[in-house]
Amino acid sequence: MSRSSSRSDASAAALGFTPVVAEAASARAVGGVAGQAGSPAALTRMMEALAEMKAASLNGLLQQAVVALQKDDFIAGSALAIQALEADERSGFGWYLLAIARERAGDFASSVKAYEKALLLLPDHGEVANDMGRLAYRMGMKETAEKLFAHFLAAHPDSHEAINNLACAVRDQGRFDEAVETLKPAIMANPQQALLWNTLGTVLAEQGDPAASATFFDEALRLQPVFPKAQYNRANARLILADAEGALADCEKALAAPMPADEALMMRLARSTMHLALGHVAEGWEDYEARRDPAFADVTHFAVERPLWEPGANLAGRSLLLIGEQGLGDEVLFANFLPDVMRALGPDGRLTLAVEPRLVTLFQRSFPAARVGAHATFSVDGRTVRVLPFLSPEDLAAIDLWAPIASPLRQFRASVEAYPDRIGYLTADPERIAHWRLVLEGAPAGRKVGLLWKSMTSKGARHRFFSPFELWEPVLRAPGVTLVNLQYGDCEAELSAARDQGIDIWVPPGIDLKQDLDDVAALTCALDLTIGFSNATLNLAGACGAPLWMIIPPRAWTQLGSEAYPWYPQARVFSPTAFGDWSPVMADIAGALGAAR
How much is the mean pLDDT over the chain? Predict the structure, then answer.
């Protein structure tokens, strides 16, 4: 099956870009690296070192640069450092000051180059490695950050900050036991260090144990009652444990403290899910806008220079561009309001949709009056940039307003009541539905039930929201059912394990479950039922109106404070009473399948 594609990897490389797969914007733990580039203590030490320099003229420029940075004047600091480097391009302190100024101004590409030169010229100045490590960590270069932090720790073995930062870099590479072993001796020697207890809590959170992690966040807050990072991390643990009220209270308290802009935005993004989980829908979507702030560390930059849509804008007769964002499943989920947008545009308006390449055919069929094309995403100097290759400059000039696809939810889905009762808003191919119904007649007898049990997105602790496959056995043994595999990606291990237990999960022929998403949507509509955790395919089934049983964590934010699933009103929800307690859920599903015979 043909499908739209983005610019090739080869052409992207020729432009100096790195293609990336977009991840959903999400709140992440801030048990992250401690300190900041050019901390007050580091700048003081540098001023003392400069006082010993013999080159008076160069020393004067560098001292002025330090003073500028102490006042957070990054522009003046950069200019003075450059003047010093023009006088002596081998000034390690000059390169270091320039690196600090450029990083704190948000120019990461220039900062990395300046740090590299400073580290070459000042190999014994550990602060350079530490600051460069923090920048590498911030840019997602965790292996590089680990090496730099280890270099700094070798020179400062008693530094709690250095131990903390190294543990964070190791943790984020999935080496959890090693991160714990890095932290334990330091905690035993210095049990009063709240920073280390907080980071230990984040390691357990990433391992999927929110209850244990909350214990360590509690200890960090006992030792240091005003500790926004620990407060925020405990908020996330409470949210996962279905205590949305406690989570919101913790997050509000964390946000009340002074902090860097990117951390405040991350906490506001986390607060959005807490509001949504409590049914505060309007407040939740307002907070979700934090993902678009240029100061947000994981912001996606959209290559569009047209006026931005804002709530209340008159759309009648206008040209509106909406760009898909976050993960593929999110693009499908957020499209819930598109029929409302089409009505608001009216017969004289024009909607342009930029979606993930595999979704183009499905969205074009669903909204035939719209123009639908594929977006492409690249990494440029450590920043995520989304472009629209299918639109010419003239096409873009004709756009009146644009928005990332989730932003109009603020207007069109500002309450639970605003979610319509209609079943389905995307249209699967009727011919392919008929094709799959015919193919399914050749499968073993019984109700045809599609099965999904995992997500291919393994970033962070996402696995904690999915049951281990072995716990599915009661469902797999439900009588009168033909199980149909819908799980994309590498799932042969699970299929083989089921076969070893005498359970056959029927594999549909002639379809790529990861790539042929238009055909996958038709297949779900041909099935009697689809059961699974929330992933891309399950969202496709829900959006196309297919019969659906969803397995979700307790008080998931997507329920919007309700007992149902407002996005897909046909969905039946199964949820554990306690986090991670999947066995009763599987028993309930098996019983429901038996009762539905």
Answer: 87
